[in-house]
Amino acid sequence: MKKTLLSLICLLSTQAYAGNVMELVTRDMSGNELDRMTSYTDGTRSRMDQSSADGSFSIIFLDDEFLYLDHGQKNYMVMDEAMLEGISQQINQAMKEMEAELAKMPPEQRAMVEEMMKGQMGGMGMDMHIPVLEIREIGSGSYESYDCTLVEMFEDGVKIQEICTVDFSEVDGSGELRDSFVRMGTLLSKLYDSIPFAGEGIRNPMEMLDELKGFPVRAIEFEDGKAAVETVLESSKEMDIDANKFELPSGYSRIDPLAP
C-alpha cells in the first residue's frame, strides 16, 4: 500500500493497526444526505462514527463492552453486562413495589391502573407488540460494482426494506469485518438478555445478519409502500488505523445511567 508523507508521519507518531474503514451514507430518494457513518475495524475492536442533523456520536466496541460517546455533550457511557444488570435490578425492584401497591387495590381499580400503565409504557417506546420479521430472497441484482443477492424484509407482512447483500469478502478481504460483527452480535445478545423488556419489542440489530447471508451494500427503506430512504456503502478500504481511534478522547466526562 502506498503511503503519503502525511500518513508516514502519523504512523511514526502513533501506533497503528491494519484494518478496514467503511463509509456508509443515508439519503432520501431525492439524493439529499441525511446521515453518514464511518466504521473502523481492526479485527478485535470496532468503532462507528455517525453524524446527522441531530448531532454526532460514536460507538466503540471493546471485546466485552460498548462505549457510547456523545460529541455534542462531550460525555460517554459504558454499556456492559454489569451496567445493564444494575438497570435490570432497579426496574425489577420498582415493579415489585408497584405490584405490592396494586395488590392493595380493589379488582376494578387495579385493572384500570394496569391498563393505564400499558399505555404509558407504549408512550415510552416500549411497544408491547412483538413484530414478526421475515426475510424473503427475491433474486439477484447489482449495485455499483457489486453483484448481489436481493432480499425483502417484512414486518407483520408489510414490506419495510429491500436489501442488496454481498459476501463479506467482497467488502473486506481479510474477514475481520465478519468476525467483528459476530462478536458484536454475541455481546449484544448478552446485553439484551439482561433487559427485562428485551423480549417485548426490543430487538438485537445483529440478530438477522445470518439470514441476510452477507453484508448489505444497499438498503432501501419503505414507508406506506413507497421507497423513502436508502443507505448505501460508499467506500470500503483496507488501511492502517491509529490506535487512538479506539480510545476515549480527552476532556469527556462519564455518565452513570444508574445515578439517582
Give the count of structural domains.
1
Indicate the CATH topology: outer membrane lipoprotein receptor (LolB), chain A
End-to-end span in angstroms?
Answer: 52 Å
Order of helices and strands: HEEEEEEHHEEEHHHEEE
- Strand numbers in spatial order across the main sheet: 7-8-9-10-11-1-2-3-4-5-6-12
Number-wise, the strands total 12
Radius of gyration: 22 Å
Task: Report the CATH architecture.
Answer: Clam
Structural class: alpha+beta
Task: List low-pLDDT spans.
Answer: 1-17, 122-127
* Major sheet summary line: 12 strands, mixed
Mean pLDDT: 78
Number of helices: 6
In percent, how helical is the residue content?
25-40%
- Please tell me what the overall shape is: globular
Main CATH class: Mainly Beta
The CATH superfamily turns out to be Lipoprotein localisation LolA/LolB/LppX
Percent strand equals 35-45%
What is the secondary structure topology, with strand pairs?
Blueprint: H1 5-13, E1 16-28, E2 33-41, E3 45-52, E4 55-62, E5 66-70, E6 75-79, H2 81-103, H3 107-123, E7 133-143, E8 146-155, E9 158-166, H4 168-171, H5 176-193, H6 209-212, E10 215-223, E11 226-242, E12 253-254
Parallel strand pairs: 6-12
Antiparallel strand pairs: 1-2, 1-11, 2-3, 3-4, 4-5, 5-6, 7-8, 8-9, 9-10, 10-11
